[in-house]
Amino acid sequence: MAIPSGEGPSRNNTSRIQMRQSITIPYRSRESEEQHVVEAQGESDAGEGREVTSGGGGGAGRDGSIPVTLADPDILDCIICYQPLTIPVFQCENGHIACSTCCVRIAHKCYLCREPIGHIRCLAIEKVIESIKFSCRYARHGCIEKITHFNRSIHEKGCIYTPCWCPIDGCQFTAPSKKLSEHIHHEHHGSFINFHYDSFLDLKLGLNQKVVVLKELTDSNLFIITNGQEHMGNVFNVFHIGPKSSAAMYEYELYARTQGCCLKLESFVNHTLGNNFHGTRKFLLVPTDFFGPSPAVKIEIRIYKTYESSRCE
Ligand SMILES: [Zn+2]
Ligand SMILES: [Zn+2]
Ligand SMILES: [Zn+2]
Ligand SMILES: [Zn+2]
């Protein structure tokens, strides 16, 4: 399926181009009663712009926060390693700042002026990076989290509102995994198989069946079993459709049995956003002729949860 990749934000040179982003700063003053003009021209995510964060119709929020425009988001990053600044932030005598990791890396000598750095905290910028809150890049899909700059990457990698692609061949629908599950339930009847966690499921795959979509009956989570045909035999992979961090919550046992012989793979489920089923080294290889002359491939799978999610709901 030729669908553009839309996985989370990536840090690269182009992201350092000046851009304007909407942020919210908790702030109580008379000014917070006034209307503030907000502009958002943030990073794009599969063609989506960052949502404007607004406390109340563009004005102050109930908590006194105000939406503002950050003309240069790079000021929240360490100028040496380009990573988001985290507390503590240090400054040299001339006011150049660096993160604590970089202070060690540059042997406590400011890389701009060679003055000592690593002893004087820059409390002003620490307060700024703590108080500035961003909307999640998936706000338009329903996420209402407000995140500090240094937590954005972690949150967005695990955000349950990350849009995923419908895995049914030929369908271009995208939505967060919960909505995608509803979509598949209503639009692709007969194209998925229901199952329960912790129960064994027998599957018989035709020679040309590359993908099996599984839908769990209690939480409607979607899983994919892929069947790739390599020169040595069939290669099976198991994926959860959802954000990256979600996959570690599930494990599986996959069996291929024939008379007197059993192949088994026990592993963590991989993750996919529905558009990419490659790049994993965890798979079950069932050699050619393992099932004899039968054109069908028979496998057995049990998927189970390893722990409960702590993700935002
Ligand atoms: Zn740094
Ligand atoms: Zn300096
Ligand atoms: Zn989010
Ligand atoms: Zn679809």
UniProtKB/TrEMBL annotation:
Its EC number is 2.3.2.27. Transmembrane segments: none annotated. Pathway: Protein modification; protein ubiquitination. Keywords: Metal-binding, Transferase, Ubl conjugation pathway, Zinc, Zinc-finger. It is an enzyme of class 2 (transferase). Residues 131-189 form the SIAH-type domain. Residues 10-24 have a biased composition (Polar residues). It catalyses: S-ubiquitinyl-[E2 ubiquitin-conjugating enzyme]-L-cysteine + [acceptor protein]-L-lysine = [E2 ubiquitin-conjugating enzyme]-L-cysteine + N(6)-ubiquitinyl-[acceptor protein]-L-lysine. One of its GO terms (molecular function) is ubiquitin protein ligase activity. Residues 1-64 are annotated as: Disordered. Residues 28-37 have a biased composition (Basic and acidic residues). Pfam families: Sina_RING, Sina_ZnF. Belongs to the SINA (Seven in absentia) family. E3 ubiquitin-protein ligase that mediates ubiquitination and subsequent proteasomal degradation of target proteins. E3 ubiquitin ligases accept ubiquitin from an E2 ubiquitin-conjugating enzyme in the form of a thioester and then directly transfers the ubiquitin to targeted substrates. It probably triggers the ubiquitin-mediated degradation of different substrates. PANTHER family: E3 UBIQUITIN-PROTEIN LIGASE SINA-LIKE 10, E3 UBIQUITIN-PROTEIN LIGASE SINA-LIKE 4. This is RING-type E3 ubiquitin transferase. It comes from Acacia crassicarpa.
